Amino acid sequence: MASLRLAVPRAGFSMHARQLQRLRTLPPVRYASSEKPTPPKPRVLEKPDKFRPPSHPSRLKSKTRYTYGPDLTQAQKTRRYPHMMPPEGTFLHWFLTNRTIHLWISLSILISLVLGIWITDFLHNTPYRDMLPPRSMFFSHPIAYIGRWIEAYDLHVAYVSAQTAEKRKQKVDDVRKRSEYRKAHGLDQAEGGLFGGWSAKEEDESMGPALQDSNGQTTDQASSDPAIIATPGTEETSAADSEHAEDTYIDFEGKRQPVKKKWFGIW
């Protein structure tokens, strides 16, 4: 501990204290001046004539002018950098900047996709796939190959049309059966009911006045023969048949049954 105390010089602290006392006793330096400087005036803003938000100032902000330097030299124009467009005048630059060739490529891709989807759907759904010619026949007999494809496609169209007609007929029969059911149970007494006459109608109601036989079916021969002329007797008969048809209905077995009268539509 004694060696450490001797290592710290005590004369340094006393000399530093004397220097501080000397600085305190020195008078402050004052420079001669003729007049005092005027205090700065407060900044006063001009009163605006109306409210102007910061987004719509009275004066447009002037754009900063940039100096881009001189034009590029020929050596600088031909200088190549990574990920840079090819120079003008080359085939690659024409291919990348031509709009016509890009439009042609886009339409070709779209048309090829549509044709591919159509052919795939046709091959997946057609029942006449066995009638299609083999692919090797296209190079040996292209005309016969295309002809057999057209025949198979015509058969496919006829098959789809028949299926659509059958589905439509089933829906019409379903509506007619519902109408007969409502008529049999007294749910369709008036024409202006809940459905307003939207249900299925019978043949004499949908086809208009015509000559009918004893079974209530139209006779095409009588309607097409000009020798048959409508008489008051036939008109009365057709009116009576129509009234009789309103009081009857056809059940699910194809028999005509009388409509059951109900009191207040309940009993």
TrEMBL record:
**What keywords appear on the UniProt entry?**
Membrane, Transmembrane, Transmembrane helix
Per UniProt, the ranges with Polar residues bias are 212-224
In what ranges is there compositional bias, type Basic and acidic residues? 43-52
Annotated region described as Disordered, given as residue ranges:
26-64, 205-245
Transmembrane region positions? 101-123
Q: What is this protein called?
A: Uncharacterized protein
* Organism of provenance: Cercospora berteroae
